[in-house]
Amino acid sequence: MSTKHEQIIQHITSLSIGSKISVRQIAKTLGVSEGTAYRAIKEAENIGLVSTIERVGTIRIERKKKENFERLTFAEIINIIDGQVLGGREGLHKTLSKFVIGAMQLDAMMRYTEADSLLIVGNRVKAHELALQAGAAVLITGGFDTEDYIKKLADEKQLPIISTGYDSFTVAAMINRAIYDQLIKKEIVFVGDIATPVEEARYLNTGDWVTDWYQLNEESTHTRFPVLDEQQRVVGIVTSRDIIDKARDLPIEKVMTKTPIVVQEKTSLAYIAHMMVWEGIEVVPVVNQSQVLQGVVSRQDVLKALQQIQRQPQIGETIDDIVSSNMEEVEGEETAYEAKVIPQMTNQLGTLSNGVFTSLVTEASNRLLQKLKKGELVVENLTVYFLKPVPIDSVVQVKPSLLEAGRMYAKIDVEVYDGKEQVGKALLMAQIMDR
Description:
Residues 195-254, 256-314 form the CBS domain. By secondary structure, the protein is an alpha+beta fold. It has helices at residues 4-14, 23-30, 34-46, 74-80, 106-112, 125-133, 148-157, 168-186, 191-194, 210-220, 240-243, 252-255, 269-279, 299-310, 319-326, 354-373, and strands at residues 20-21, 50-53, 57-60, 84-87, 98-101, 117-121, 137-140, 161-163, 196-197, 204-205, 225-228, 234-238, 257-258, 263-264, 283-287, 293-298, 327-329, 337-340, 375-386, 395-405, 409-418, 421-434.
């Protein structure tokens, strides 16, 4: 039998679109307290069944489908990076689908530059021209100007060409931060978006036995299952630790862990990712306010969702992407990596940017952990010492070494060299998330 809370949700779902809803009306119609009615209406609002409009009240609405996040306009980019418009002012209202950092040969650059994108490049006039011809806007770093015919072309194409005094790393970081903020404002990813629904979830009932756990384990290869009572409420959890050395004919209720950690559909992805790392949990039940199982979310679900966010179309080739693709393992050395300092990795002085230095340290540490522990690195604390500046075109060697490691944490010492000269070092503390 469904609870009063569920009955209210079902009643709201049955109402026609546009129907007005009030706490008092729901309480009177279904014979429940106003407090129960209020909480149920709030949940209905959270899941998109109703909407509260000022001076109108709460009405039944059509459940909205997910929409693509709003894109940044070139006018917003100018404000973000303190830019100056050199040409193509009439195109400032247009939006960008991605950005590309142009620190490569022209032919390679144009393979990545397409219509509605933004090319971030220095004082390379031919690159400005080719990008505009391809339908892309141009952001010139380092405070440089461009030729008059380029400005005229930008006006004809109605594509902005912008100049900023910042270097490529700073610009990319600023735009990425703005995109991230835009994503948060538009839509936060919730557990309900990524969870396996209850119809497909594996679980045990209070009347089951330890032998049933073994059967589910064999079918699914999972080791953690929620335990439900007769009302489908989560009352426990059973893991491999709980059934070790236990007889197979024991009731599940005798071995399960009571009051397990659960989450609701509106729990954020960031929260559950953090919790899984710190608690070492592989699977978490998803419940409603009545503790009735709605589905389960696994560590694999969370990792896939995090990777999907990183592949959003506006997030182009970032500095971290460039560092990762530019870093190679040093032959003959088991845990050493090298990377060439290319233009977009430098600051306004032409030396390795502090932010890129940090990215190099983190990327090398991550590769070391993947090799030794086969896990994903989540940085907890990072102390960096910059000993000497590293000029452009240098080939730096990054040498991470594991000082301490547990099942869920690692401490890594990193040394960075330019040739035989040490130019920096770092101490990194990290949590490890298993794949």
